[in-house]
Structure formats: structure tokens, C-alpha cells
Amino acid sequence: MMYFIYILRLHFFGCFKKNLSVDKINLKKCDRGVDLLQFRIKRLPKRTMMNEKISGLLKYPAIALLFLLSLTSFAQEISKDAAVIKAGEDLFNGNCKSCHRVKQKLVGPALAGVYDRTPSIAWIKDWVRNSAKVIASGDKYAVQLYADYNKSQMTAFTSYTDDQIMSILAYVKAEADKPDAPAAGAQTAGGAGAAQPGVPDGYMDAILVGMIIILILMVVILGLITNALKKYLNDKQLDEADKQVVNNPYTLSSFMRSPGFIFLMIFLVAAITFKTVIDGLYSIGVQQGYQPKQPIAFSHKLHAGAYEINCVYCHTGATKGKQANIPSPNICMNCHSQIKQESPEIQKIYAAIGYDVKTASYTGKQKPIEWVRIHNLPDLAYFNHSQHYNVAGVKCQTCHGPIEEMDVVKQYSLLTMGWCIDCHRKTDVNTDGNAYYDKLVELHNAQKGKGSKMKVEDIGGLECSKCHY
Ligand code: HEC
Ligand code: HEC
Ligand code: HEC
Ligand code: HEC
Ligand code: HEC
Ligand code: HEC
User: Fold this and answer.
1) Which residue among 283, 284, 384, 417 has the greatest number of ligand 6 atoms within 8 angstroms of its CB, and so is best to mutate?
2) Residue 241 half-sphere exposure, CB side, CA atoms within 13 Å?
3) What is the pLDDT of residues 442-463, one digit of tens each?
4) Is residue 423 part of a domain?
5) Which ligand does the CA of 292 lie closest to?
6) Statement to judge: residues 219 and 275 lie in one domain
């Protein structure tokens, strides 16, 4: 019965002409909805696959039936719609990428082809929502998979809807079907730096050296010209005074002893000292560039750069409230209970939470990791991460710089009051799709005219009480 419905559905799509037998080649000619059909038909017995003829009589009533069935069974199909793929990409990047790649094994398996190798699409949905439950149910595939991956637990995404999971699959499929790009992205920390666009350093060096050579040549040529002129003038009949001018013994030491030179030097030294002192005064309490050594050689360049782990996967607080938070060792353990167990740096994580790798159990002896805090506003100032990251949509890098290129984090911005205020004067409020701002935008447009952008300043971003307790 199912088989007939699928054949008729193909008919419906005009995939093949009457009386054609159904086989994979024919199916391939039809591009709509075929992947799933292939998948289904592969699982049919061989006998039914061969030389089935479609009955013309059955066709029309069955189409009506088919239409009804489509409404339910189509939900299982992996979409090729660009909007769905995009939605899936966002979900994947935000939640899955920390452990999965499409074509590469990372913490979990490469996801390309999961829709073919897992028992069913419904299985994938159950798995993503709660893999532990699927494993606990004794599902053979799940138990094997879990064992193959050293029993690392995948995060449960209990709140995911069918549509969300299908969109992720749509994205995975679209990526998997793409031909391999020549440079498949940075896979090692070293590769990440090498792939940067722009003028290569080598060129700049070559240009500099070239300019220095030209300068030296010019000095030499000028020297030769002076000598030639001197010779020419000495051959002429000159009076004593003129001769003295021509043969002026103008040596380096006489130059250095000249009052003009001494004055210039004293002036320069004084100016430099003065500027350093003034700069120093301005930067009291300013820690821009502060880059302390951390107790574990944790590298953002590796984790956030090469492995593209999302910032808020670790700094979960940034989406929720004031503090971005340094991740607890439990987050590290999501991966490092398996990855690089033998590394002395990773063993510091184990020591911190009292984990014994050999027995995979906790000893109860804990010794917190003492990360050195880098960014720190004085207590009198109030700063909230989620307001800037979630509400305003400011990227972490705007304030913290290219963290994903830093092996060791350093303070990138000044973090002074002037810095906050300067940005509040310049930055537009992100009002798109935020009903909270509708009224304010109306008011603003009425006051300042349509088209003038609403800055943070305009919503009170310069009021002392907003930033000071
Ligand atoms: C913390 C790491 C982690 C995250 C985050 C994660 N997974 Fe997994 N995933 C795993 C591991 C590990 C496995 C292998 C099975 C096991 O050990 O549980 C796996 C297995 C799977 C499988 C089965 C693969 C197969 O070959 O059969 C699917 C499907 C899957 N994950 C989908 C997702 C999706 C979709 C997301 C994002 C919404 C996601 N995973 C997020 C770690 C993760
Ligand atoms: C795998 C987890 C992880 C990821 C992903 C991650 N971080 Fe971190 N981050 C840490 C840890 C651990 C520390 C503390 C040690 C250090 O300073 O290197 C830290 C420190 C920081 C600090 C300094 C905090 C302080 O002391 O003031 C900033 C800023 C920061 N991260 C920003 C980011 C940004 C931006 C991203 C994304 C590009 C990111 N992090 C991704 C784990 C992570
Ligand atoms: C999403 C997975 C993931 C998370 C979470 C994670 N790491 Fe890693 N970490 C990796 C991978 C992958 C590597 C590279 C392993 C390799 O080079 O083979 C790595 C490497 C490292 C290394 C270098 C080890 C060495 O000797 O080469 C250190 C140190 C490290 N991680 C510390 C941490 C700390 C601390 C945390 C928690 C704040 C953390 N990691 C969280 C995936 C992760
Ligand atoms: C508008 C500027 C701005 C943006 C955007 C921003 N930060 Fe921060 N961040 C700060 C300031 C200012 C501090 C110091 C806060 C304090 O001392 O109270 C800070 C502190 C931190 C800290 C250390 C202390 C803490 O608050 O837990 C971490 C980690 C951090 N930021 C990570 C992030 C991450 C990850 C993002 C992106 C999700 C991000 N920041 C986005 C300005 C910013
Ligand atoms: C990169 C630009 C940028 C920087 C730097 C910045 N802010 Fe903001 N800030 C914004 C934006 C954009 C908003 C508007 C958020 C919204 O829509 O509610 C905002 C809003 C605020 C608000 C809420 C204002 C209100 O009227 O509700 C406070 C408080 C605040 N910022 C404090 C700070 C402090 C303190 C600093 C410096 C440590 C700082 N900001 C640095 C961009 C910035
Ligand atoms: C956008 C946020 C913001 C606003 C608005 C703001 N401040 Fe500040 N203010 C800060 C931050 C952040 C610091 C800490 C800067 C530092 O440590 O250099 C600070 C520091 C100060 C200090 C201490 C300076 C010092 O050297 O210790 C004073 C006093 C001060 N602010 C007064 C004010 C007054 C008065 C107003 C209203 C006219 C105001 N602030 C508005 C963010 C703000």
C-alpha cells in the first residue's frame, strides 16, 4: 500500500511518464521530494521494486488520498528551502557546532548523512531532545553510538520543536551536498592565522628595505655631487674668503658641539619625558592591554577561533544578566572528560573538580581554578552584559576585541567612563522587532523628525544614575 502511494506521488509530481517502471534511475530524474523517496524505496523488498506498472485506474482517487497523506508525511521530508536552511544554520552554529561539524568528527560524529544512517527521522528528533532517554530505552543503535563515543553525553535540547530539528537537518544536508571547498576552513590554530586577507607582512618589509636602500643611494649621490662641485670650484680662481667657504671643514663632531644641536636635543628629551608623565597620569587605573598569565593554558584562539565554539556556550551569563561569567570546570568537562586526557593542562581541570580519569569517578577533593580576572570596573559603576549583547545586539568583539585570535586574553578597550559615553553617543538603539521601543521611536520621530536615528544617548544612556548606583 505505502509503495503505491509513493509511486502515485511521483506520478503527481510528473517524475516519470506512464508505464515507466520505478527504479532508482528514474527517481533521480525527479528532483522534488525524491531523497526521502529513495530512502523509503531502498527499504522495500526487492520483489516490489522491479517492474511495477502503475495502474491508470487507481490514479485519480488515489491522488486525493495522497494529498491528505502528504500533509502528515511531508513533515518528515528534509527541506531545501533557503529560509529553512538559514534557520537551521543559526541553530546549528549556536547549539551544535561546539561538538559537531557537518563533515568532520569532533566531539560527536560528523552529521552529514545522519538522516540515512540513523533508524529514522523520528529517532533523530527523540535523540536531539533527550539522547539519554533514547539510550536508556535500550535502543540498539543508540547504545552502540554512545559506546563508540566513549559514553560522552550529548546535551539535551528538550524544548526543540519538530520544525527546529528539521531545519537543522536541512542545513546539514545542504552543507553535506556542497562540493568540498579547496581550503576547508581553519582546522588548526596555526592555519587560522595564516588564512588572513590583506597585505602580507613580507611585502611591507620589502617596501621598507627598498626605501632605505634608495635613501642611502641618494646620500651617496649627493656626496659625489658635492665632491665634484668642490673640485670644480677649487680649480677656479677664487679669493681666500670664498675658498674657506668651499672647503669648510664641516665634521660630525663640530656639528654635535654646536649650540643649535645641543638645544634641539635638550628640547626633545624634555618633550618626551613630559608626554610620558602626562600619559601616565591619564592612565592611572586604566588597564588597557592587561594580560596576566592564567593558571591553565586555556587558549581562546584554539577554542573560539579554530574550533569555533560559541562565546556564550562557555560565558553563559552574557545572555542572562549582568555578568558574562567564567565557565565552571563542568563546562570544560563536556568535552575534556574525553579530549586530551593525558595533557598536564587538562589534568589541572580534573584536579580542580576532583575527577579521577582512570576510574571515571569523583574523589570529592576539589581545588578551584584561580583564574585571574582581567576586566574589572570599579564598584561605583554598573554594567550589564545581557543589555548590551541580547537587547542591543552588540558583538562581544566590539568591546573585547578579537578574542578568538588571542592565546592569552588581554583587555582590549579602555573601560573608562569616557569610553562608555562615547559609544552611547554614537550608537543607534537596536529597535528592530523590539515592541518595547515602539512608543519611544514614535516619540523620537515626532520630536526630531523621521529618519533621524535614535541613539543610546536619546534613551537616557548619558544619565549618571543609569551607570552609577
Ligand atoms: C556537548 C556536545 C554535543 C552537543 C552540544 C551536541 N551534540 Fe550531538 N552528539 C554528541 C555526541 C558525543 C554524540 C555521540 C553519541 C553520544 O556519545 O552520546 C552525538 C550524537 C548526535 C547524533 C547522532 C549521530 C549519529 O551518527 O547517529 C545526532 C543526530 C546529533 N548528535 C545531533 C545534534 C544536534 C542537532 C545538536 C544541536 C542541536 C547536537 N547534536 C549538539 C555531542 C553533542
Ligand atoms: C571553551 C570555553 C570558552 C569559550 C568558547 C570562550 N571563552 Fe572566554 N574565557 C574562558 C575561560 C576559561 C576564561 C578565563 C581564562 C582566561 O582569561 O583565558 C575566559 C576569559 C574571557 C575573558 C576575560 C575575562 C576577564 O577575566 O575579564 C573575556 C573577555 C572572554 N573570555 C571573552 C570571550 C569571547 C568574546 C569569546 C568568543 C569569541 C569567548 N570568550 C569564548 C572560556 C571560554
Ligand atoms: C566543546 C568542546 C570543548 C570545551 C567545552 C572545552 N574544550 Fe578545551 N579543547 C577542545 C579541543 C577540541 C581541544 C584540542 C585538542 C587537541 O589539540 O587535540 C582542546 C584543547 C584544550 C587545551 C590544550 C591541551 C593541550 O595540552 O594541548 C586546554 C588547556 C583546554 N582545552 C582547556 C579547556 C578548558 C579550561 C575548558 C573549560 C573552560 C575547555 N578546554 C573547554 C575542546 C573543548
Ligand atoms: C558593551 C561592551 C561589552 C560587550 C558587548 C561585551 N562585554 Fe564583556 N565586559 C565588558 C565590561 C565593561 C566588563 C567589565 C564588567 C565589570 O567589571 O563589571 C566585561 C567583563 C567580561 C568578562 C569578565 C567578568 C564577567 O563579567 O563575568 C567576561 C568573561 C566577558 N566580559 C565576556 C563577554 C562575552 C563572552 C561577550 C559577548 C557575549 C561580552 N563580554 C560582551 C564589556 C562588554
Ligand atoms: C559598543 C557600544 C557600547 C559601549 C562601549 C557601552 N555601551 Fe552601554 N549601551 C549600548 C547600547 C547600544 C545600549 C542600548 C541598549 C538598549 O537598547 O537597551 C546601551 C545601554 C546601556 C545602559 C542602559 C541605558 C538605558 O537607558 O536603559 C546602561 C546602564 C549602559 N549601557 C551602561 C554602559 C556602561 C557602564 C558602559 C561602559 C563600561 C557601556 N554601557 C558601554 C552600547 C554601548
Ligand atoms: C554610560 C555609563 C556612565 C554614565 C552615563 C556616567 N558614568 Fe560615571 N563612570 C562610568 C564608569 C564605567 C566609571 C569607571 C571608570 C573608570 O574606572 O575609569 C565611571 C566613573 C565615574 C567617577 C569616578 C571617576 C574616578 O576617577 O574614579 C565619577 C565621579 C563619575 N563617574 C561621575 C559621573 C557623573 C556625575 C555622571 C553624570 C553626569 C556619570 N558619571 C555618568 C560610567 C558612566
Assistant:
1) 417
2) 0
3) 888 888 777 778 888 888 889 9
4) no
5) 2
6) no
pLDDT digits (tens, 9 = 90+) for 400-448: 999 999 999 999 998 989 999 999 999 988 887 787 888 888 888 888 7
Q: How far is the CA of 381 from the centre of ligand 6 (A)?
A: 7
Q: If you count them, how many residues does the chain have?
A: 469
Residue nearest to atom 20 of ligand 6 (CA): 417
| Residue 415 forms part of a structural domain | no
Answer yes or no: is 350 within a domain: no
10 Å CB burial of residue 64 (0-12, 13-18, 19+) is: exposed
Question: How many domains does the structure of the chain reveal?
Answer: 4
Among 11, 92, 15, residue whose Cα is nearest residue 56: 11
For atom 24 of ligand 5, which residue has the closest CA? 461
Q: Is 238 exposed, middle or buried (0-12, 13-18, 19+ CB in 10 A)?
A: middle
For the CA of 107, the closest atom of ligand 3 is: 2
97 and 172 assigned to the same domain: yes
CA distance 344 to 357: 12
Instruction: Assess whether 60 and 34 both reside in one domain.
Output: yes
Q: Which atom of ligand 4 is nearest to the CA of 415?
A: 12
At 124, the pLDDT band (50, 70, 90 cuts) reads very high
Same domain, 103 and 176: yes
Q: Ligand 1, residue 153: give the atom nearest the CA.
A: 18
Cell of 13: 509530481
- For residues 169 and 124, state if they share a domain: yes
What's the 303 CA to ligand 2 centre distance in angstroms? 9
